[in-house]
From TrEMBL:
Keyword Nucleotide-binding among record annotations: yes
SMART domains for this protein: AAA
Ranges of residues in domain ABC transporter: 3-236
InterPro entries associated with the record: AAA+_ATPase, ABC_transporter-like_ATP-bd, ABC_transporter-like_CS, BCAA_Transport_ATP-bd_LivF, P-loop_NTPase
Family: Belongs to the ABC transporter superfamily.
GO biological process: L-amino acid transport
Protein name: ATP-binding cassette domain-containing protein
GO molecular function annotations of the record: ATP binding; ATP hydrolysis activity; branched-chain amino acid transmembrane transporter activity
Keywords: Amino-acid transport, ATP-binding, Nucleotide-binding, Transport
PANTHER family named in the record: ABC TRANSPORTER ATP-BINDING PROTEIN, HIGH-AFFINITY BRANCHED-CHAIN AMINO ACID TRANSPORT ATP-BINDING PROTEIN LIVF
Amino acid sequence: MLLEANRINVNIGPVQVLRNLTINIEKGETISLVGRNGAGKTSTIKSIIGLYQVKSGKIIFDGQEITTVPPHVRATELGIGYSPEDSRVFPDLTVEENIKLGIWLSRRIKDEKEIEEIIFSIFTEIKKLWKRRGLYCSGGEKKMVSIARALALKPKLLLLDEAFEGLAPIVVDRFIKAVNQIKEMGIAILVAESNVNNAARVGERLYAIDRGEIIYEGEPQKIFQDQTLLNIIRGY
Ligand SMILES: Nc1ncnc2c1ncn2[C@@H]1O[C@H](COP(=O)(O)OP(=O)(O)OP(=O)(O)O)[C@@H](O)[C@H]1O
Ligand SMILES: [Mg+2]
């Protein structure tokens, strides 16, 4: 097992945002986490990367307990890549600088050319954007840059928060292809997604979350057989 989040509870002020949440990811596996707005998807990802503190429960990554390990150590040393839902592309830096920032800070990865080749093989579009400032990138381009930045640190696990949000259907297809290519590189992926159709397309296994609790875990396609569950996920 690559990641085990075991019965974690997370509070933000007086609000309990995650309740006894358990998520497991095998090495190289792609899973999707689906739930309506406010269900707890971002909170789950932020707890895995360490931006939210866990009140009880354990997080184990690659055989090591990381429950209290700081986020930058999880990202740069342990190999957990994170692309946040708002992309966080710096407007004044070029695409190249945005992507290489993590490498420069980590001082761990030496071969920038190799990283460039990996990124261009997944997002050929980024080559043309290389010297463009973040300010002039479209929403979809920023999502690519954000994913590329996480990939540049050669993660074992990639956390993608709302990777397809706001993208046109044809661009969603493009991103799903990219996710599959990343998977072929042996990287495990967690995709948080509010659209259940997209979530079911991308994951080998699917978790559904509502009110901070996991309410389904299993085969993605089976979720379409349970109308009650679908209504909760779609927020009806
Ligand atoms: N920093 C915070 N302060 C207060 N409440 C928070 C904070 N972070 C999350 N919450 C609350 O926790 C719940 C879960 O939020 P979260 O962002 O994890 O949901 P989400 O599933 O990612 O939603 P969305 O699809 O809208 O991105 C929400 O009710 C939210 O208001
Ligand atoms: Mg969110």
